[in-house]
Every structure is written in C-alpha cells, then in structure tokens.
Amino acid sequence: MRALCWEGVNSLAVRDVPDPGIRNDQDVVLKVRASAACGSDLHLLGGYIPFMQAGDVMGHEFIGEVVEVGKGVRKRKVGERVVVSSFVGCGRCWYCTHDLWSLCDNTNTNPVHTQALWGYEPGACFGYSHAMGGLAGSHAEYVRVPFADFGSFVVPDGVDDLAAVFASDAGPTGWMGADLGGVSPGDVVAVWGAGAVGQVAARAATLLGAERVVVVDRYGYRLEQAEKHMGVEALDYTTTDVGAALREMTGGRGPDVCIEAVGMEAHSDGPGFVYDQAKQQLGMQTDRPTAVREAIHACRKGGSVFILGVFAAVVDKFPLGAIINKGLTVRGAQMHGQRYIPGLLDRIAAGELPTRHFATHPMPLDEGPEGYRIFKEKVDGCVRPVFRP
Amino acid sequence: MARVVRLGAVAAGAVGALIAARRVRRAGGPGKTGPTWLGVTVLAPPDRIAAGGELPEPLRALGDAVEVRMQPAPGDRGTEVYARLRDDGQGSGTAARLTGRDRMGPLRQALREAKSLVETGEVLRTDAVETTHPGPRGRLIAALDERAQKAGRL
Ligand SMILES: NC(=O)c1ccc[n+]([C@@H]2O[C@H](COP(=O)([O-])OP(=O)(O)OC[C@H]3O[C@@H](n4cnc5c(N)ncnc54)[C@H](O)[C@@H]3O)[C@@H](O)[C@H]2O)c1
Ligand SMILES: [Zn+2]
Ligand SMILES: [Zn+2]
Q1: Distance from the CA of A262 to the center of ligand 1, in angstroms?
Q2: Which residues from A are below 8 Å from B153, CB to CB?
Q3: How far, in Å, CA of A56 to CA of A8, rounded?
Q4: In which domain, by residue range, is A112 found?
Q5: To probe the interface with A, which of B79, B115, B127 has the most A CB atoms within 10 Å?
Q6: Which of A150, A351, A382, B42 is the most buried (most CB within 10 A)?
C-alpha cells in the first residue's frame, strides 16, 4: 500500500510499504477514509522528538472503514465507519478504567525511552515515534488498530468524514483542556494558539459555560475562524499587548482559566525568541515554552493553567515563582480520546461543535509532503491538510 | 536492615502455593545487598493473577530462577506483584538496565507481559516497520526497540 513516511528531519516521502494485518486478537484493520495532519506531527518533522526512524508511517488523526476484525473483537463489524482515538488504551488497566486513557499501562511496547525521560511511560499513540510505542500511523491506505473495542467509535450517518476526523485527536484534546482545566460558568478563559486544538478548547469553554472566551495567535485567518465558527473573541499578539488586553477584559483580575495550545515550537515577537531558539538548537533546552510562560503570567491569582501543547523534556526560564506565589493549578495531559469521543460526535452531529472548517486542504495522500509544507509554514490559509488515500 | 514483609490477607486457597514464597526476607534500603524485588501493580484480585494456583505463563516460564510474591495494592489499585531473581549475581549499572542487557531483563519482560495478559488477555505486539535507510540514530533506536520489554525502570 501507499503511505506517507518520515524520512529524516524535514523530509517526508510517499512510498510503498507492506499492508498491515491483524497482529493481536483484539485488533481491527481499517481502510483509511481520511487522515489529518496534526500540530504534533510538526514536532516530529522538525526532529524535536528524536525517536523517529526513517520509514516510519506518520499520522494519528483518522477515520476509516473496518475491513478486518480480529477474533477477540466484540463490538466492531466489517463495513462500519469509525473514528479512532489517537492514543491507544487497553480499556482494563487502572488508568483506562479511571478515564486516563493516554496513560494506559499496556500499550506502549517500548517504555524505555520515556521512562528514562519522564520516569514513567505514557500509552502508545499511532505514528508517533518509537518512544510512543512504534505503531504505524494512519497516513496510509490501511491502518491496524489495536484494542479496537475501546478506541474506535461508529460515526453517526449525518456527519461527514472531514468533520468527524477531528473527533479523533484535536477534538478530545481541546475539550480536555477546558474540562480538566476546570472551566465553569462565569469564567473568563484565554486560549493560546488558534489551530484546531485551540479552537476546540475555546468552543468547549463556551459550551461548559464560560462567560467570555478569547483566543490568542498571530495568524489573521486562524483568528477569523475562531471568531466566525467558534463565536469567541480574538487577540493578535503581534499587534496587541496580550497581558494588558486580558486585564482590560477582566476588570484587572486576569483570566480564570488559561489554556495553552501552542507547544514546543512557540513563536514570539520579543527578544526572548532568539534566545529560546538558539538554546533549543544548541540542545540546551528541548522546547520553547513561550506561550506557557505567558499563560502562567497572565492567569489570575488562584487560577488554572492547562498545557495541551506537546513538550518533550526540559525548558528554560520556567516561571515557577508565579505558580507558587499566585497559588496556580498547572496541569497537562496527552488526550484521553476514549473519554470524550462519544460526546464529541454527538455535539458535532448536533451542530454545536463545528470542526469541518479545520479541513482547509483535503488532498490525495500522494500530495502529503506538500500538505505538510503548507501546514508547517502556515501559508495558503492552511489550518489542517487532510489526506484521502 | 532486613525485614519480614507483612502480607495482607489476599490469598485464598487457590494461591496457597504462593504464600510461602511471599513470606520472604527482604534485603532492601540504601546500602543493602541482595536481590532486588521488581514490582508491577495488576488491576485484578490475586486469584485471577494466579488462577488455579498457577502464575501467569511468562512468570512461570522463568521457573525456579525467580521468586514471586503478591500483596494487595492500596485503595482500588488491585494487587502488587513482585518478583526477583533468587540469585542476583553481579549488580548491573544503569546503562545495562536501560538497554535491558542486565540479568533482570527477562524478569522485567515477564512481569510486564504477565500484567498485560491478566488485565487484557493479550500482549500487544507493535507494528513491524522496516526502516528505509537507518543512520546511526536509527540503528540505536532499532537496537533499543529490540530489547524494549527487557529494559527500563521497573
Ligand atoms: N495534548 C495532546 O494530546 C495533543 C493532541 C494534539 C495536539 N497537541 C499539541 O497542541 C498544539 C497545537 O496543535 P495544533 O494542531 O492546533 O497546531 P498548529 O500548529 O496548527 O497551531 C499552533 C498555533 O499556535 C500559534 N502560536 C505559536 N506561537 C504562539 C504564541 N507565542 N502565542 C500564541 N499562539 C502561538 C501558531 O501561530 C499556530 O496557529 C501542538 O503543540 C500539538 O502538538 C497536543
Ligand atoms: Zn495530534
Ligand atoms: Zn489501559
């Protein structure tokens, strides 16, 4: 089959690879209908997560049709159209049974790298390097889905592929930020990053009762999407003093909940950017935490900061003092897809959570490398390329 | 200081065979020598972990080389399953441990597999992805992958 493979730092290629098959009884194999690029892939592409091997198939946000069912699978049938959680959960360990699916104990077959880095390993994620279990990704004609009874969900008929695909990863991620960030009625919520993840976080905050929600980014076309489709306010950090604007919006208090949806390659206008970039490139820090710093600084006293952006290891100039002295709650997670996907599909079907507009660039799989180029460079109004093998 | 590990009342008759193994002297703590216990917590009661008094196959396969004990985990966390080599031989350094080349490698793998089998009924196999052109880093990743289940912090 054809698949979009990582070939080296900033190098992708569409190649022929062997078809996947059932390797465990609880697997299914899907014929991929749509597979979206994610901001997390950019970190792999840029070499910031150094556990990719040339030839690894990329992609973790996908929808497909069941074509093969392992003999231990109870819920799935050939022919069903399903969306799949990017993180794989076994459904029966302590973490899965406590709805902390991305922390599954039984899916990361290669725990060594992340145990050394973080103390313990998270669960596996499709197409997300050997440190996350080494499973092949979904930018391919077919993909194998382990523990399919737990990680795959039938998509309601009225929801088209290009809307449903975002229930796989961006949707649960954004929703989790608002939910576990503790958004409650009356809150003012600020979200850094107006990509698909940040936009869902903003919409989720509104649906969870926030009084006022504002998204921060520098790309006009993304901020316009947030205003138009998600019904939230927008701030361009290149033309606005974000801290001052947030104080002005909150009677000087600062936002109650700050959600970071930017990640380790954050950009900044300030002089600190050159410093952060240089340190990252010299290997003196692995991540650029610009938006995390800003979120922690802007947050009201006793407020909550949720980090959705992916970070690999260590950062410099982390404002620890603000956390302790302002009494903040800081939390982060990889997404617990299985916890949120059913509810998200209902909301997408009901028209409460728009997602279709993220798919700015549907394209054939063969155009994958070009799709990633425009996504990475944020040109041509690209929010997400979606490959249709 | 060696101490006797106190066991909770977890075992019913089915795991009677294990009870003796559980009442062991533990040489632990800083500066102490002796075999180290490796532990995993399994979300299941002891009689499911050792159904019919038999340990899960991956641990059973190590035979007399290891001893195993169990105790209830606090709260709703299931059962703590510990295993160690009867004879520790030479201690091993961090590099050997991280790459799974120490003598504990097979024990780590057996504990992980036993846990997964009891909890899920299978041991997940990752995808066999062939590399296109391995550089030095690719070769390192491949070497670590090969021993992944034997390595790491357990
Ligand atoms: N936690 C999870 O499970 C999970 C899942 C999916 C994605 N992610 C992560 O979420 C992040 C966002 O993903 P995405 O797909 O939306 O990415 P994206 O690349 O489409 O969007 C990131 C946005 O952040 C903006 N940005 C950069 N620097 C900024 C700054 N200093 N302040 C405000 N905005 C800034 C960019 O302009 C861009 O619009 C990534 O780090 C991704 O890895 C995490
Ligand atoms: Zn993602
Ligand atoms: Zn699990």
Answers
A1: 3
A2: 115-116, 119-120
A3: 10
A4: 2-169+336-388
A5: B127
A6: B42
Q: Is B122 helix (H, G, I), strand (E, B) or coil?
A: coil
Residue listed under structure tokens 């909150």: A250
Q: Please check whether residue A261 is in contact with residue A191, taking contact to mean a CB–CB distance below 8 angstroms.
A: yes
Q: What is the pLDDT of residues A120-174, one digit of tens each?
A: 999 999 999 999 999 999 999 999 999 999 999 999 999 999 999 999 999 999 9
User: Which residue has better confidence, A291 or B130?
Assistant: A291
The residue from A285, A307, A332 where one domain ends is A332
CATH of the domain at A19: 3.90.180.10
- pLDDT value at residue B154: 79
A199 C-alpha to ligand 1 centroid (Å): 10
Report the alpha-carbon distance of residue A143 to residue A134 in Å, rounded: 13
pLDDT digits (tens, 9 = 90+) for B33-66: 567 899 999 999 999 999 999 999 999 999 999 9
Give DSSP secondary structure letters for B84-145.
EES---S---HHHHHTT-STTHHHHHHHHHHHHHHHHSS------PPPSS--HHHHHHHHHH
Phi, psi of A13 (to 5 degrees): -150, 150
- Residue corresponding to tokens 């990053």: A193
Q: Does residue A10 share a domain with residue A79?
A: yes
Q: Residues A29-62: pLDDT tens digits?
A: 999 999 999 999 999 999 988 899 999 999 999 9
CA distance A174 to A259: 9
Cα atoms in the Cβ-side hemisphere of radius 13 Å centred on A113: 25
Q: Are A385 and A164 in contact (CB under 8 A)?
A: no
Tokens of A62: 């996908």
B119–A56 CB contact, under 8 Å: no
Ligand at shortest distance from the CA of A294: 1
List residues, by chain if needed, whose CB lies under 5 Å from ion ligand 3. A 89-90, 93, 96, 104
Residue B62's identity, in one-letter code, is L
pLDDT tens column, A300-351: 999 999 999 999 988 888 999 999 999 999 999 999 999 999 999 999 999 9
Alpha helices in chain A (DSSP H): 39-45, 94-97, 112-118, 148-151, 161-164, 170-180, 196-207, 220-230, 242-249, 272-281, 290-298, 320-325, 337-349, 368-377
pLDDT of residue A148: 98
Pocket of ligand 1 (CB under 6 A): A 38-40, 42-43, 169-170, 173, 192-198, 216-219, 222, 237, 261-263, 266-268, 290-291, 308-310, 334-335
A56 shares its domain with A133: yes
Predicted pLDDT of residue B88: 63
